[in-house]
Design brief:
Helices cover about 45% and strands about 20% of the residues. With about 575 residues, it is of the alpha/beta class. The strands form four sheets. It has an eight-stranded mixed barrel with strand order 14-15-17-18-19-20-21-22, surrounded by five helices. Strand 19, helix 18 and strand 20 form a beta-alpha-beta unit. Helix 16 packs parallel to helix 17. The longest helix is centred in the first third of the chain and has 25 residues. InterPro entries: Cyclic-di-GMP_PDE-like, EAL_dom, EAL_sf, GAF, GAF-like_dom_sf, GGDEF_dom, Nucleotide_cyclase, Rev_trsase/Diguanyl_cyclase. GO terms for molecular function: cyclic-guanylate-specific phosphodiesterase activity. Pfam families: EAL, GAF_2, GGDEF. This is Sensor domain-containing phosphodiesterase.
Length: about 575
């Protein structure tokens, strides 16, 4: 076995040192040892080929050790699981079921107790067993082991819920992270990322139960294909991963080809034969699991982007695809996280909330909009991303008790690129119908960039949205002459004063004069004005003295998750003396 493989295997073995089942079984064995005085207790996980000793306890003689592997066919555990009931044998050398087994010849005469360990759904996990001198056990010992088996069966379910994917019974991502964290420093792995192509279309054509059955068959075949050479896991949805005990690039690619060949062979699912295609990416190097995931995923995405299926190995040239790939993943898995920042009417306490998007990337953490919006536009994900944000915000806001009486509007950013699409109003209407959110509670915020586009191409969509009841606000107002021109061309109801004016307002007479003039102009045009970026009480007071009514900024609240919005509003009321009725 190569040094890299050896380190990986040791890492896998050491992983159980922090697992609930292993630690708890050691406590159980210590207790049983005190009660029964026996020499050996062990917990074995069994399949049709072998028994793996998950945990072992020996008083003196080292009969079994953790991670020992025994032949299933020639084991005492098989007797227990075949009978599906507790088994007690006073003398293994004299009993007809055990006297002929090689294990008996190896261990010599022993007394044996074995009890099946079952999961909650009745599936057998393995056995809890005890060994001692011949005729060393009495009937109460069997009762104690039966009680221990029930307890350990519960813990097997706990382990499964933490580390095993419920649908496919493969390891989950949590397990992979834990495994990787406990590897030796010089251990090496390669990773294969697998995405089932057009899985959504399969679900739509055959139904979700069929799709789930296909995923189970897929997982079973993947597990069989990589047995002994890697760790298979379900990453998310229709995405799977295999960590390979390190091979050369040539060997890893050959294994990936074998996986591809097996997974693209026809499946028999619920009486239907179906053949699928997969896209696979291979990462040969990575200092963390996240490195491997990002790189193998980027390689896989290169295959999809080219409209093909097959296998690609990550190369440094693919690094530029990583941000775009993160967006694709965010859209696919609805990973965009909505934060809310209140916009408050200072005189009455009326509140609008602005929905602000964050990308919750599984490897990169929470990513702000400045990091991904340019890539979203470049790669064509902007519309889908914004519609997903609108949908999530509409659903989330309605989950807030009494939201209609407490929040007058939901403000959402809208890009000019989207408004150029003739079908954009219909796409918005579809989201509002789906979420049952009233159109007259939606406010789209347009930024200054809209002036770069042909307003005639945008105006019909804006008018159709206005007819639905949607209102518009112009962001970054006062930043340039172009924003003033937009007031002549678009039916906006509100403007948002650029934060540069607010920042300088308390100490800069020119800023004060500009803000005063803009407020007066907007009052004549019957436009509401929001001051953005308020961070100090001095800025708040200066704006109030000039007659500005609507306020937004960190002084009131930072962007917060919906569940923190109520507390944030309460703190803003106390801090700024805002009326609550």
């Amino acid at each position: 076995m190569s040094n890299g493989v050896s380190h990986c295997r040791r890492g896998w073995s050491s992983l159980k040192q922090i697992q609930v089942l292993h630690e708890a079984s050691q406590v159980v064995f210590e207790h049983l040892g005190q009660l029964l005085g026996a020499n050996t207790f062990f917990l074995a996980e069994s399949d049709l080929e072998k028994n793996r000793i998950v945990s072992a306890w020996n008083r003196s003689e080292q009969t079994f050790e953790e991670d020992d592997t025994l032949s299933y066919e020639k084991s005492y555990c098989k007797l227990v699981l075949d009978k599906d009931e507790p088994v007690m044998i006073p003398d293994t050398a004299a009993h007809p079921l055990t006297q002929h087994l090689g294990l008996t010849a190896m261990l010599g005469p022993r007394s044996f107790i074995g009890v099946p360990v079952r999961r909650r759904d009745g599936r057998k996990f393995g056995t809890i067993c005890a060994l001692d001198r011949p005729n060393g056990f009495t009937a109460p010992a069997l009762t104690y082991l039966e009680q221990a088996a029930v307890f350990l069966g519960v813990l097997v379910d706990v382990e499964d819920s933490l580390y095993i994917d419920e649908l496919t019974s493969l390891y989950n991502r949590t397990y992979l992270e834990m495994f990787y964290d406990h590897l030796s420093a010089d251990a090496e792995l390669s990773a294969v990322f697998i995405d089932i192509d057009r899985c959504k279309a399969v679900n739509e054509a055959y139904g979700r139960p069929f799709g789930d059955a296909l995923l189970k068959r897929f997982a079973d075949r993947l597990k069989h294909t990589v047995r002994g050479i890697g760790i298979p896991a379900r990453y998310a949805g229709d995405e799977f991963m295999v960590l390979l005990f390190h091979r050369s690039a040539e060997q890893a690619h050959r294994i990936a080809e074998s996986i591809y060949e097996q997974l693209t062979a026809p499946f028999d699912v619920m009486g239907h034969e179906i053949q699928i295609t997969v896209s696979m990416g291979v990462s040969m190097e990575g200092t963390t699991l996240s490195d491997h995931i990002i790189r193998s995923d980027a390689a896989m995405y290169q295959i999809k982007k080219n409209g093909k299926e097959g296998i690609a190995v990550y190369e440094d040239e693919l690094e530029e695809l990583i941000p775009e790939n993160g967006l694709r993943r965010g859209v696919k898995h609805n990973a965009f996280h909505v934060m809310y920042q209140p916009i408050v009417e200072a005189a009455t306490g009326e509140t609008v909330v602005e929905a602000l998007i964050r990308l919750k990337h599984p490897e990169m953490g929470v990513v702000g909009p400045n990091a991904f919006l340019p890539h979203a536009e470049k790669s064509g994900y902007l519309l889908e991303m914004d519609l997903q944000t609108l949908r999530n915000a509409c659903l989330q806001l309605q989950s807030l008790p009494g939201w209609r009486s407490r929040i007058s509007k939901l403000a959402v950013n809208c890009d000019a690129i989207e408004l150029r699409r003739p079908d954009f109003p219909e796409l918005v209407a579809a989201v509002l119908r789906e979420t049952s959110f009233p159109a007259d509670r939606i406010e789209f915020e347009l930024n200054e960039r809209i002036s770069m586009f042909d307003i005639e191409a945008i105006e019909p969509q804006v008018m159709r949205l206005r007819e639905m009841g949607v209102t518009f606000a112009l962001d970054d107002f006062g930043h340039g002459y172009s924003t003033l021109g937009l007031l002549m061309k678009l039916p906006v109801q509100k403007v948002k004063l650029d934060r540069l004016f607010v920042e300088a307002l308390p100490h800069d007479p020119r800023s004060r004069a500009i803000v005063e003039g803009l407020l007066a102009m907007c009052e004549r045009l019957e436009l509401a004005v929001v001051a953005e970026g308020i961070e100090t009480i001095e800025q708040w007071k200066a704006l109030r003295s000039l007659g500005c009514r609507w306020m937004q900024g960190y002084l009131l609240s930072r962007p917060v998750p919906l569940e923190e919005l109520e507390d944030a509003l309460g703190q803003a009321v106390a801090r700024c003396g805002i009326p609550t009725s």
